[in-house]
Automatic annotation (TrEMBL):
Signal peptide: none annotated. It is an enzyme of class 5 (isomerase). Residues 5-101 form the DNA helicase Pif1-like DEAD-box helicase domain. This is ATP-dependent DNA helicase. Keywords: ATP-binding, DNA damage, DNA recombination, DNA repair, Helicase, Hydrolase, Nucleotide-binding. Pfam families: PIF1. GO terms for molecular function: 5'-3' DNA helicase activity; ATP binding; hydrolase activity. Belongs to the helicase family. It catalyses: ATP + H2O = ADP + phosphate + H(+). Its EC number is 5.6.2.3.
Length: 105
């Protein structure tokens, strides 16, 4: 049987990340996230991020989330930058179902 995401403490990606619709430039999104201790904690404590219905996420927003992860999480000791700041990202979805949110506007 299916297990609703709410039973696992699931929330929308936009809410968890603190990006709203994610239409602003990355610098403005970063400033807004840094004003919220909870949103900063979400980014810093996360080890694995599961994004369901990936087909509904615009590629530009995914790029912004990658950049935010790199900016909000400390770089490894060797000075390199890891994708999404080192968060393991699991993308799940069916690209033949739903288009990215906002593209129909």
């Amino acid at each position: 049987p299916a297990l609703p995401a709410v039973n696992l403490g699931g929330v929308t990606l936009h809410s968890w990340a603190g990006v709203g619709f994610g239409e602003e430039p990355t610098g403005l999104l970063l400033a807004a996230i840094r004003k919220s201790a909870q949103k900063c904690a979400n980014w810093k404590r996360c080890k694995v991020l599961v994004i369901d219905e990936i087909s509904m996420l615009d590629g530009q927003l995914l790029d912004k989330l990658d950049e935010l992860g790199r900016l909000l999480r400390p770089a490894p000791a060797n000075g390199g930058q890891l994708p999404f700041g080192g968060i393991q990202v699991v993308l799940v979805g069916d690209f033949f179902q739903l288009p990215p949110v906002g593209l129909e506007r």
